[in-house]
Design brief:
Layout: E1 2-10, E2 16-25, E3 30-34, H1 41-48, E4 56-61, E5 64-65, H2 70-74, E6 77-80, H3 92-102, H4 107-120, H5 136-148, E7 154-158, H6 166-181, E8 185-189, H7 193-199, E9 202-207, E10 210-215, H8 217-220, H9 228-235
Parallel strand pairs: 3-8, 3-9, 6-7, 7-8
Antiparallel strand pairs: 1-2, 1-4, 4-5, 9-10
Bound molecules: adenosine-5'-triphosphate (ATP).
The site of adenosine-5'-triphosphate has 10 residues, from helix 1.
């Protein structure tokens, strides 16, 4: 579903913020992407989503190279960024209908899915209001509802749990599991290692721009009686 081949990004033409990352994610997998601050998570996600271009390497989404056929590739995924910045002079419902139009979601499906996700996230009653009246959490839930709405093949989230209350975080985790059970694929970054350990089929660890592990949580822990957090801290500590 998602293939990265030797992907690097340099912002200053001297050092690589992301350094020759290769990764293959299969349909139905949920992958957690973890790493210390500044490791290169957001840079990688921005390259996958086509917001920035790699300095070198290829990114292929559902068989489509995003640099060669960006629109075709982008039809396969939705993305929730780490900051819920959103054009906010429009109403919540107009934003969701815009997303549904972009992804060609039928009128019947969009009605059902908008109702379902916004009721789950308890923003349904606010949809007729303009987004600039929404709290930070409400904006994030609107973005999440919009990203789930097209039922994407690949769902990409950058730090999705930041700013969500525990109740909403649980709802999101349940929706993520459901999405993968139904054949969807998820790639998300997080600093909440307990969630990553419990939710993910595999965990990819990035450190100083390099991918230092990509395996099941048990294999990364080498089946020792340690938490993912303990192993992660050991693997990424600065000598
Ligand atoms: N627009 C930019 N211009 C120059 N350098 C950048 C830019 N964006 C990121 N960087 C640098 O690239 C490196 C990777 O940053 P990135 O934001 O991808 O890390 P991250 O793993 O997402 O970090 P965090 O956990 O803090 O969000 C860092 O050294 C950062 O300072």
């Amino acid at each position: 579903m998602l293939v990265l081949k030797n992907v690097s990004k340099s912002y200053d033409n001297s050092k690589n913020a992301v350094d020759k990352i290769s990764l293959e994610i299969k349909k139905g997998e949920i992958i957690g992407f973890i790493g210390p601050n500044g490791a290169g998570k957001t840079t990688t996600i921005k390259m996958i989503t086509g917001i920035i271009s790699p300095t070198e390497g290829d990114i292929v989404i559902n068989g489509v190279d995003i640099s060669k056929a960006p629109i075709e590739a982008k039809k396969n995924f939705t993305y929730v960024p780490d900051h819920p910045s959103i054009f906010d002079a429009i109403k919540g419902i107009d934003y969701l209908n815009f997303i549904a139009d972009m992804y060609e979601v039928s009128i019947k499906d969009r009605k059902e899915r908008i109702e379902r996700f916004t009721k789950v996230f308890q923003i349904y009653d606010a949809l007729a209001q303009t987004i600039n009246s929404y709290s930070h959490g409400m904006r994030q839930k609107l973005l999440l509802s919009g990203a789930l709405l097209p039922n994407p093949n690949l769902f990409i989230l950058d730090e999705p749990l930041v700013g969500l209350d525990p109740h909403s975080a649980k709802l999101l985790k349940d929706l993520m599991k459901e999405h993968c059970r139904n054949g969807g694929t998820i790639f998300f970054s997080s600093h909440v290692l307990e969630v990553v350990e419990n939710l993910c089929d595999r965990v990819a660890i990035i450190h100083k721009g390099k991918l230092i592990a990509c395996d099941t949580p048990d294999n990364i822990k080498k089946n020792k009686d340690l938490t993912l957090e303990e192993v992660f801290l050991e693997m990424t500590k600065d000598e």
